[in-house]
Each structure stands twice: as structure tokens, then as C-alpha cells.
Amino acid sequence: MHIKSIQLDGFKSYQKHTEIAPFSPQFNAITGYNGSGKSNVLDSICFLLGISKLDNIRAKSMNELISHGGSKAIVQIRFDNRDKKQSPFGMDHLDELVVQRHITALPTGKSCYTGYTLNGHSATTQRMIDFFRGVGLNVNNPHFLIMQGRITTVLNMKPEEILGMVEEAAGTKMYDQKRKEAEKTLFLKEAKLKEIDRIFEGSIDPRMDKLREDRKNMVEVTRLQKLRDNAQRKLGAFEYHQSLELSKREMEHMEVVSNEVQELNQRMEQVVVEIGNKGDEQQNLIALRDNPAMETDLSLENKTKQEASLKLEQEKRGVEEGIVRLKSEIERTIKRIENDEKALGTKQVELENIKNDKGEDIDSHEENKALITKLRGELEGMSRGTVTNDKGEHVSLETYIQETRAQAADLDTKVKTANNRRDRIQANLNRAMDKLASLAAKSGTDQTALAELTKAVEKITQQVQSLGYNADEDVQRREREKEITDRIRDLKRTNDNILNNVCGGRYAMNFVDPPVPWFNYERDVEGLVLHLIRLKPQYKDYAMAVDIALSGSVSFFFFISSQLYLYNTIKATGEKEKVRYRSERVE
């Protein structure tokens, strides 16, 4: 492989496009007057080969390689690759290789952008350096470029130095250097792994053991809490059942007493009626008593009536005493019920005090464990974005908030239920019967409303079925839509990663803050010129000519749908700078 021609455009003293050819495959000498640009030709070759020490080509920065007044410099060399024995690896099928390197000055004037192309395809700097070193062209070798006055030094080199030149020419030194770099990287990685293992053994593993122990304790505390809650629910249900049974027995007793009172009242009314009848008979007897003829008969009859009246009076007093006795018994029953209610309230208070006394240590232990778990859960959640709920499970913040709200609602329901139970126990027994009747009426109303709602639901269900709606198919369509959306997002992310990784991201379009609030990337940006131009297969050999004609703009210019100035963030000279690109309007 040897040089066939060199093309310079804007490089040092060659402001205009200049082609230097032909070159001999064996030995070449460049002659000319002083200042004619002989050394610049040699500098262009070293520049294309990727020299890193710019002092050897008499420059302090890349900007000095661009001709005065220009903003871009291009060096292109054509290599004859017909000798397949000296052909680079993977290039045996090509008879000619075209390598181009260009420099573009940035608007700031402090740095510039450089890039390579190999046969019209972009290539990284490291790839091109390995490409040339594969054929024995290491421009960064101290003895690759022999400057004026150093020929004697080369002639007097030691055998080790000569061996290094031979290894460089043979291409074996590149692999030795890569092996040393790999060994150095491997050594650094092993040290890093040892440091990571030390951190795990000294800090993370003990902390994990502690967290596992805390989790075990928390699970045990949670189990005890569930047992306590279950026992409390059973106790509450038992107390409620006992209260209902007591209320039921008292109501039955009151019903019996009420029936007895009602019977006594009826009997008393009958006695009063009989007493009234006896009074009328007594008046008749008094009237007949004045008749002497019937005095004897009336005396006997009056005696009989008086005895019957006396008997009725005694029976009346007995009934009145029975009524008084039943009223006293009713009062004693009501008083006993009130005493039982007070005793029940006292027992409940005593039971709560006992619960508080017995559960004080457990509650204190639970609070401490909960605090520890909360702190450690927050520590773990910092890396995973989760929190630890009361069950010791790691859930998202939204799920934890929902569970907390559900628990609060459950507690509120329990409090309301307890208050209602207390009100029911302390309510008046007579009003409870009225309430029961009203509840029965309300239950009938609710049953009617429920029947109407059931009919409405059945009607709506029939309408939905008539529409041909299938829930399973709808779920499958939604899942398919989600899979397609995820696939599109993954493909877009993959495409962006490829564009950002190829050639240092020169083909990627990464925008910073939009230039206007209403800017829409997908709507306003048509894309890079490089992405919008397609050459026909019969014209693919003219791709390099098109790039030269466009001055490399296919890699830098893009089309937008309106007059906007967009900014692309690139990396240059170790810092990020904003570069303004020219835009063309596309209707």
C-alpha cells in the first residue's frame, strides 16, 4: 500500500484545492523553493496519519492548521492497495483506499472539530490510528518522522531501539502496546473489585444482616398485632352479643309485665263497671226499702247484695294492690337495668385500663420497632423509590398512601360503630320498639329500591350485551397497544443511542432548551441533510464528490419547517458548547 495522490484544501498555505500527484511506490522526494510548501505536504501526511504531538508539524493547536481567513481544512490521500500482501486487514477486496481528515473551526475560535472518513464512510480517530498501525504506520513513534539534523541520531541508535523500529514496521508493537493497556485496565479493575468486596464485607453485609434481623422482628411484631386485633374484635363481638342478649331478655320481661298490667287494667275496668251496676241496684233497693210489704224480702235480698258488694270491694282492693305491686316491680326492673348498664360501662372502662396496662410494654416495643423499620426502610427506599408499609412490604409511595387512607377509613368506621353500639345500649327501651318498627318500614323501602336498581342493572347489562362488547378482547387489544407503544419507544431509544454512539454523536440531533415555547421537534424538524438525501445505486461512486460539493454540510446542516435557529450540544476540547447551525425553510 502506497500513496497515489494528495489533495489539500484550506490546509496551512494551501488555501485553494490543490492535488499533488503522482507518487512513486518506492521513493519520493519533494523539491521546491523556500516557502513553496514542501514541509506542509509532509505535515499533511502526518496530520492524516493522526499525529498527536503538533510540535512535530510546527503547530500549537488545530486552528493553526487552517489557512488564514478560512474556517475549514481538508486533507485527502489516495492509497494504492493492489499489493494484497501489504493490504490492511479487511481491505483485500479494494484496489484503492481513500482516507480524508477535515477540521472545522468553531465560532468561539478557541477549539475546532475534526473527523475522519474512510472510502466515504465516517470513522473514529482511534479506528484510523489502529488502521494505520496495522500496516506499520505509527505516526506517534519517536522515529517515524526524522527531522532535519537527526539523521545522525538514527544511524547511531542502539540495537534495542532498532528492534523497536522493526517491530513497529512489522506491526507487532501495536499488539504489545494493546496487551499492556489491557493488563493495566485489568489491574485497575481487579483493584476496584477488591475495594468493592471490602466495602461489602465491612459495611453492606453487616447492615444487611441487621436489616434482615429487623425484618424478622417486624414480622413477629406484625403477627402479634394481628393476634391482638383479632382478640379485640372477638371481645367486641362477644360484648355486643351479650348486650343484645341482655336487652332481649329485658324486653321479653317488660312485654310480660306489660301484658299483666293490661290484663289488670281490663279487670279493673270490669270491676268499676260492676260497682256502677251495684250502685244502681243499691238505689233501687233503697227505693224499695220504703215499701213495708217488701221489706222482709228486700232485707234478705239487700243482705245478699251487700255481701256481693263487699266481695267486689275486696276484689277491687286486691286488683289495686296487684297493680301497685306490678308498678313497683316495673320500677325495680327499670332501676336494675340502669344499674346493669352502669356496671357494664364500669366493666368496659376497667377492661380498657387493663388492656392499656398490659399492652404498654408491647406498644412501646412496637413503637421502637416501627421507628427503626421506618428509618431503615427510608434508607432502602432512597435507592429504589419505595417505602415500607406496616406489613414489612416494600411498596410505592402511592400504594402506601392508599393503604394508609384505607386504614384510617377502617378505624373511622370502627369508631363510628362503637359509638352507635354505645348509643343503642344507652337508648330508652320504649323508644327502641318504635325505632325497630321504623327500621322495619325502612327495610321494606330499601328492598323496593334494591329491586328497582336490580332491574335497572339487568336492563343496562342487556344493552351492553346487545352492543357485542367483549371484555377479554378489549383487555387483549389494550395489552397489544401497550406492547406496540413500548416497542416503538424502545426502537426510538435504540435509534437515539446508535446515533449518539456513531462517530462521536455527529449524526445525532440533541437539542437543549427549545428556541421558542411552541417549538415541536417532531413537527418542526425535518432532519439532517445526510438523512434526507438518497443516492441511486448507479451513482454511489459519486458520494464523495457530493460531500465535497456540499463542503461536508450533509453532516452539519438540517432542514426545519420554519425560520428557527436551533442549538445542538456537542463535546469539544473537553467542554460542552452551544453551536448555532444554519437552517433552510422547507414548505
UniProtKB/TrEMBL annotation:
Highest taxon, organism lineage: Eukaryota
Assigned keywords, A-Z: Cell cycle, Coiled coil
Gene3D superfamilies per UniProt: P-loop containing nucleotide triphosphate hydrolases
Residue stretches making up the RecF/RecN/SMC N-terminal domain: 2-381
GO molecular function, one term: ATP binding
Keyword Cell cycle attached: yes
Coiled coil: 323-357, 401-442
Keyword DNA repair: no
Protein name (Swiss-Prot/TrEMBL): RecF/RecN/SMC N-terminal domain-containing protein
Taxonomic source organism: Caenorhabditis nigoni
